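Catalogue entry: protein
Contents: sequence, fold tokens
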Amino acid sequence: KDKDGRYDLIAEVPEEVDSYVDEPLQDGVRYWYILRCTDGKYISSPTSPVDVIPINNFAPSPPEELRLEGFDGDRINMSWSSVPGAVGYKVRYGFKSGDYRRTVDVGPTTSWSLIPIAQINHFIVVSAYDGHGNESLFSKELAVLPRDDDTDPPTFLESEPKKVKAGSPFKIRCSIKDRSGVQDGSVYLVWDDDGEIEIDSNTVPMVRVSGDIFETATSIPPQRKGAKFLYCIFAADDDHDMGNEEDRSLGGSNLRHIEVVSGGDEIYVYPNPVSEVLNLHYALPDEAQLDMMVFDVSGSPVRKLKQIARGGKGNASWRVDLPSGVYIYRLRISYPNLGGQNEEIFRGKFAVVR
């Protein structure tokens, strides 16, 4: 019926029909209906009116074929199939599978780019919604590890030794750092004893001995006094997004020199089994920062040394390039992963004889 209470005839059906579907109707509008019968000559009185308010609560189907389309810089590009009857889509994502704490209404598009929050897995689903506010179930989940912007190769810091004794084999150590880590197995050293490594050279793999410290896996053969010993170290970072090893960056150190001296030029550190090097053995409960201050007998500081050490048993080594004399050291061990509050301090002394 209309606003004045008048009913409009909407249909005539045969007597054997006992149902009728009225469509289309407007959602949220109240409709009144009455029924009359006729024998072809007379019309009966109307039935009691009935009313109905139609509501569309049929949700669209969930989007299918949610897929990764690649990366644009650090953006994650994705797309999905369109859903019949949908007027828009919502992208939900989070950092645990099944836990989607962020929602973005992307409108009617079937593709979108996500700016990742961090270099961690992002778990993504998409839903469709219609013009009546009905929303579909979620699509299948898409898990994506974003690319990061670590395109720089590792940094090659201090290496040891600077001087070796002629006729004795030796190993070379180097501190190598990279914010995404240094790939174990990628580090190697190229050396020669004739002042160049471009024409001919020798290659030795290097292994991690503690923290960021790498050492030649085998000893360098004994060198003659005065040999022009040069070397360069190469390493790749551990950045390989989505299992893509091509994303790793390989870099090399500058060309470095070791002086080969006779036995009379050797430096001895006591008490110590290795000349030129002060070795401190440790057993740590967790990764630690080692900070050592070295003082002469007057109490004046002469060296400040730092090293990151992995948890467990290990050895911290420092080359002692100091004049002959007695020295005192103070070693502070702090644990950054334990809040930085737990510290241990050790004191000792050593002698240098040239």
Observations:
- The mean pLDDT is 85.
- Residues 1-55 form one domain.
- The chain has no helices and 25 strands.
